[in-house]
Specification:
Layout: H1 3-22, H2 25-29, E1 32-34, H3 47-58, E2 65-70, E3 81-86, E4 101-104, E5 107-110, E6 116-119, E7 122-128, H4 131-139, E8 144-156, E9 162-174, E10 180-183, H5 193-215, E11 221-225, E12 234-238, E13 243-247, E14 256-260
Parallel strand pairs: 1-2, 5-9
Antiparallel strand pairs: 2-8, 3-7, 4-5, 6-7, 8-9, 9-10, 11-14, 12-13
């Protein structure tokens, strides 16, 4: 190999090493609006994400970046990685596009095909990761989170209103130490906003038609967020010794109630 080629290879290795060393939770979110939400039952009332929603509605803030740390109900390991499970199921979207997104309540983040599937009333996402990340997960999973970074996309006035984000990055991080265990950004899908909006518009028409047929309604109904539980399906009761979540009496646990356009 020529001396110039060897020098270039060494430079690339040094650059990659420096990048890995510099990658941390704080460096990734330094130029982001980081949501402080830890209780995801309050995500609809979070001021940071409400700013994101406003940008999606009025078409501004396209270069602003937002970040949120996603917790999981369970995180079973596989031979090559892990599964991420959350309660934000895809009932808001038609089945033809339901598995194309990572759900953060009413915010949807486009992902590549094959990552998500529906099991037992919840959405399961499967990710591959390296041996180091796997060993860390085996030792202690409690502080681990998925860090999702995204920009404002657009608002969909749909069967269940939602906000489509433009993906920036996805990482497995330790929220306590700030360490980045795995870069999962390759699972995100680059989108054209116009094309994505057209796809979701077509899917919503199909969703509305199916829901009308199933319910026997003659008017075009839609779902709106329940004001009692703020879309969580649960009501939170705090007692001196414990906190209890019970099914919302207004929406019956669905998080949404019928309305009309």
């Amino acid at each position: 190999m020529k001396k110039g080629g060897l020098t270039l290879c060494l430079w690339c290795l040094v650059a990659l090493y420096s990048y890995a060393q510099d990658l941390s939770l704080s460096s990734l979110t330094s130029d982001c609006h980081l949501s402080p939400v830890t209780d995801l039952f309050k995500i609809e009332s979070d001021e940071v994400l409400n700013q994101f929603r406003d940008y999606c509605k009025d078409g501004t803030g396209k270069n602003e970046k937002f970040a949120v740390l996603l917790d999981w109900k369970s995180m079973p390991l596989t031979d090559t990685g892990f599964k991420f499970e959350n309660d934000f199921h895809q009932n808001m979207l038609h089945k033809s596009v339901a598995y194309d997104y990572l759900y953060i309540r009413d915010i949807i983040l486009p992902i590549k095909a094959g990552c998500a599937k529906y099991e037992g009333y919840t959405t399961i996402y499967t990710f591959k990761c390296g041996a180091t990340a796997l060993n860390t997960m085996r030792e202690d999973r409690k502080p681990l989170r998925l860090l999702a970074i995204f920009k404002p996309g657009f608002y969909m006035d749909a069967w269940i209103d939602h906000y489509c984000a433009v993906p920036v990055g996805l990482y497995l991080v330790n929220k306590d130490t700030g360490a980045v265990l795995q870069d999962l950004s390759s699972y995100l899908k680059n989108i054209n906003i116009t094309t994505e909006k057209q796809k979701l518009t077509r899917a919503n028409r199909s969703k509305v038609a199916e829901e009308r047929q199933n319910s026997g309604n003659t008017q075009p109904a839609k779902k709106v967020r329940c004001n009692t539980c703020h879309g969580t399906g649960k009501q939170k009761y705090e007692y001196p010794s414990k906190t209890v979540y019970e099914t919302c009496n207004t929406c019956g646990g669905t998080g949404y109630v019928n309305s009309f356009w």
